[in-house]
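Example 3.2
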Amino acid sequence: MSAKKRNVETICVQGGWKPRNGESRVLPIFQSTTFKYDSSEDMADLFDLKAEGYFYTRLANPTNDAVAAKICELEGGEGCVLTSSGQAANFYAIFNICQAGDHFITSNNIYGGTYNLFGVTMKKLGIECTFVDPEWDDERIEKEFRPNTKCFFGETISNPGCAVFDIERFAKMAHRHGVPLIVDNTFATPVNCRPFEWGCDIVTHSTTKYMDGHATQVGGAVCDSGNFDWEAHADKFPGLCTPDESYHGLTYTKAFGRKAYSTKLVSQLMRDLGSIPAPQNSFLLNIGLETLHLRMARHCENAQRVAEWLEANPRVAWVNYAGLKSSKYYALAQKYMPKGTCGVIAFGLKGTREDAIRFMDNLQFVNIVTHVADARTCVLHPASHTHRQLSDEQLLEAGVAPDLIRLSVGIENVDDILADLDEAMKK
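Structure, written as tokens:
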């Protein structure tokens, strides 16, 4: 069976690592910094990008590459690069096509860490970001595009607000202005949504979340569709379309075609910044990927039950879960994620911020953790934790209400989850 025709479930189990005769059936950990060659010329060809192979793990490692290949196949992409974290993935995805003096646009309801990365840290590098409300009409958003705008960014399902991003709409908008759409697909995963099928150009992941699923490693991924025509907008993307003097005048689009973006990310950004995952982390990630399709189904099944219970609970002020027919994102979720969205629910209790904190403190096996999207049910109050660096005004701009509780529903027995929630609310 052709790899391109394989179903997601099969790719989760079989993708990436293809052992040859007598080799390890399980993906091995290549825990080595360096690799040996027989001649100086062999090594020189690798440094000049004339040959493929391994010579230093900062640039490439067989364990990392096998897992990247699996994620690439899951997303239906052309090239994929693993990074040391989801934050690194989002930084690399933008920085690979932006430099000082450039500008990009992002949805304003993205994860607080990414909001700070884009709005504060990247600004220090001379890259300006404009935050837009994805619910504005096209005319208002398109006024934010500038001649130096290089991309548009959004999250399939926003963290923590659980808004659904209209991928097709924003892909068309970005392309009208000659720039790619980058989508963080962490919460949906390629099991439930494949953004490339809706016109997205580049996908990022925090593999720390559902892909790992067990909270054992921190990692990220940048996956390129290979579909964006960089040469058609060569004036906007000189880093890809003009000679790179650090590689003897090589031009990525001419030398690597559809793999230009991912090749540049490795050979330039990884070479110089080095935010790589350890091979052992990639090994752990691969174990998680093997059951991703099973876990996502259970996460969504459990979360649907919990969301319906919360919606009917008189102690609950509001619930945002796109699987609910009452959700304003229900139609978008049915379009992009008909098999289910994810296990994360946003809701608020009737009462004060202190009531929300007391509720969380009363939970028994549902733990308060910074993490989200693994096998264990967990809870967080973003205004007090992940987003505490934002003012109340910034919180509201980012779609995070002060009373918002982020509940990440795990794969335990759903009746036990509901019992813990109910007992904590009664207290």
